Amino acid sequence: MSQPTTRSTAPAEASPRPRFAFTRTHGLALLLVIELAGLGVLVPGYLEPGSLLDTSRTFIETGILALGMTFVIVSGGIDLSVASLLALVSVVMGLSYQAGLPLPAAMFLGIMTGIAGGLVNGAAVAYLGLHPFVVTLATMAIYRGAAYAISNAAAVSDFPPWFTSIGQSYFAGGLVPAQLPVLVVAALACWLLLDRTTFGRRVYGIGANELATRFSGVPVERVKLAIYGLMGCLVAVAAMIQTARVSTARANASIGLELPVIAMVVLGGTKITGGAGTIPGTVLGVLVLAYLQDGLVSAGVRNDWGLVIVGAFLILGVLANELFRRAPR
């Protein structure tokens, strides 16, 4: 006679709840809150929505460049030519319009110039096997020199009102700058591309282990070319917005802008040697550094300390990335 089966009456062990993991993104968000709170104390009225939104006009172009730089650095590259290419795009657009080309066509020519400049960088890195630092250091000088040469260091300022309104107008009752939605849309598009597509996975793979990615069948050269082409396209968009904002196309535009762009990306958690990084982190890095620089100026700190702050945050960003990477999971 078989023994009756007995069932345990002990309560089933509850599955452990997932523990909250404090990430670098959480740390950046907390840093931004603390920073804004401190600036609100130092500068009365700084935290008013109108003030914060108006300040965003000063970093829209930098933010757009930082989005493209995220792809470049995640892939293990670097682009030092972004500011020079921005100036070249602006000058090409301004001079072609001054020569009689309709402004929409001149804008299209400027976009093509930006993409072409990015593809030149990408081709030299991907197909010639040159180091991206050396390539973009050279094109930084070439693009800036070309901008000065073709413009004879002269500026173009006679743009129509509909164009300058892109960088100077507001909507929502005069509260939101017209160019802010461009940054928001660009950030969403770049996040989807990097985080939700095969292309984005390939970008991460190349930055983490290029040889293994190549052996897995990924066309590494074409992906690198696309990354730098995307960077060039975003440079062109930033050039349009900046030209409209200052109502001038000139060869000395955005000198030194490449350092804040790289600092924002690294501060946002992108590993400088490639293989790791996120668009939300970059956006937070842009906000932290941009509001810090603007807030200190509003508090009466001299502008020349801005470079000191950017350099310090670049070092701190690299250090923080290493600490989070080595921290036990």
Describe the structure.
This protein is mainly α and 329 residues long. It has a domain at 54-254. It contains 14 helices and 2 strands; from the N terminus they run αααααααββααααααα. It has helices at 24-42, 49-55, 60-74, 82-98, 103-126, 132-151, 161-168, 180-196, 198-208, 210-215, 220-246, 258-267, 279-298, 305-326, and strands at 170-171, 176-177. It has a two-stranded antiparallel ribbon. Mean pLDDT is 87; it is low at 5-11.
List the helices and strands and how they pair.
Elements: H1 24-42, H2 49-55, H3 60-74, H4 82-98, H5 103-126, H6 132-151, H7 161-168, E1 170-171, E2 176-177, H8 180-196, H9 198-208, H10 210-215, H11 220-246, H12 258-267, H13 279-298, H14 305-326
Antiparallel strand pairs: 1-2
Rg, Cα atoms, Å:
23 Å
- In which range does the helix fraction lie? 55-70%
| Helix and strand pattern | HHHHHHHEEHHHHHHH
Number of strands: 2
Our count of helices gives 14
In short:
The chain has helices spanning 24-42, 49-55, 60-74, 82-98, 103-126, 132-151, 161-168, 180-196, 198-208, 210-215, 220-246, 258-267, 279-298, 305-326, and strands at 170-171, 176-177. The protein has 329 residues and is mainly α.
What would the keywords be for this entry?
329 residues; mainly alpha; 2 strands; 68% helix; transmembrane transporter activity; transport; cell membrane; transmembrane helix
